[in-house]
Design goal:
By secondary structure, this protein is mainly alpha-helical. The chain is built from 5 helices and no strands. It is found in: Cell membrane.
Length: 145
């Protein structure tokens, strides 16, 4: 058996973890706020049932960018209150973004608009991945100043 210590999880907080009830409350409050924000975007950017779901695409891309930035802030720079990640990351951004709505909408397009459905599915995932990278990059640039 090796005496070499196991690597420390980089997500392990620098300060003691908040109590479970406070984490759950932060997630619940953040999730409600994120879902309300998503509903607001959906009202501002309505879409036809047989067209591109712009509102869900916008929320997922913006949410992915913000999540990338948040992870740099809390994991690499160790900034913020211990409840910041559960409140903003899991709660607000988890409630704001939605993969299920995105998938259900694309499935509904498959019968009559298969090319649009595939473009929405593939394009959305690619845009979200790029958006995470943009958020990470911007936060790292901001952190160097």
């Amino acid at each position: 058996m090796s005496s070499t210590p196991l690597p420390v999880d980089p997500d392990e907080p620098a300060v003691p973890s908040p109590s479970t009830p406070s984490v759950l409350a932060a997630i619940a409050l953040g999730g409600g706020l994120g879902a309300l924000a998503r509903a607001g975007v959906a009202e501002l950017l309505p879409h036809p049932s047989d067209g591109l779901d712009v509102a869900t695409l916008v929320t997922n891309v913006v949410g992915s960018m913000l999540l990338g930035a948040l992870m740099v802030l809390v994991v690499e720079h160790r900034h913020g209150h211990p409840l910041l990640r559960p409140f903003v990351g899991v709660g607000v951004l988890g409630g704001f973004t939605t993969f299920s709505t995105y998938a259900v909408h694309a499935r509904g397009l498959l019968a009559d608009h298969p090319v649009l459905a595939l473009a929405e599915l593939i394009g959305g995932v690619v845009l979200c991945l790029v958006s995470v990278g943009v958020g990470v990059g911007l936060m790292r640039l901001w952190g160097e100043e």
